[in-house]
Amino acid sequence: MSKRLTSDWTKNTEQAFGETGAIGDHGERNVMSYLREMFPDAEIIQHQSDYNIQTSGIDITVNGVGIDVKTNLHTGRNVVVEKPTLMKSKAMFWLHWNREDKNDGPVIYKVKDMQHLVKDWPANGRDQLVFVPRHKVP
């Protein structure tokens, strides 16, 4: 994500980050719809303006389980992971959403599993790692 436009806490990421924040907000709304459809009996909460939850890297909870939503899944299924952000995340899962094709299922994984996988990987002088997942979630 790009740099914050303000040091003040805002009600949504669009106010904090501008256009890239608006993309994230839109993606979170789509993920909320997707999760409600997949888990109709679950308690699903978007924590858009909750400072403590957001700063721990959680956007949405499903029955109390924290999910960090990333709207950076692109057609072709490649996922970009910002290693420093991943390593400090307190979310249980990261869910990557394709904002270009909402019919394309998300990529979701346990943060601890991915942290373990990438902890010793060099990022070729960069903080981004790119993955192509093998399995598609419905």
In short:
The protein is of the alpha+beta class and 138 residues long.
What structural keywords apply?
138 residues; alpha+beta; 5-stranded mixed sheet; globular
How would you describe this protein?
- There is one protein chain.
- With 138 residues, the chain is of the alpha+beta class.
- The chain has helices at residues 13-17, 19-38, 51-55, 83-88, 111-118; strands spanning 44-46, 60-62, 65-70, 79-82, 93-96, 107-110, 128-131.
- Strands 1-2-3-5-6 form a five-stranded mixed β-sheet.
Helix count, per DSSP?
5
> How many strand segments?
7
Mean pLDDT: 83
Largest sheet: 5 strands, mixed
State which percent range the strand residues make up.
15-25%
Assembly state? single chain
Task: Describe the SSE topology.
Layout: H1 13-17, H2 19-38, E1 44-46, H3 51-55, E2 60-62, E3 65-70, E4 79-82, H4 83-88, E5 93-96, E6 107-110, H5 111-118, E7 128-131
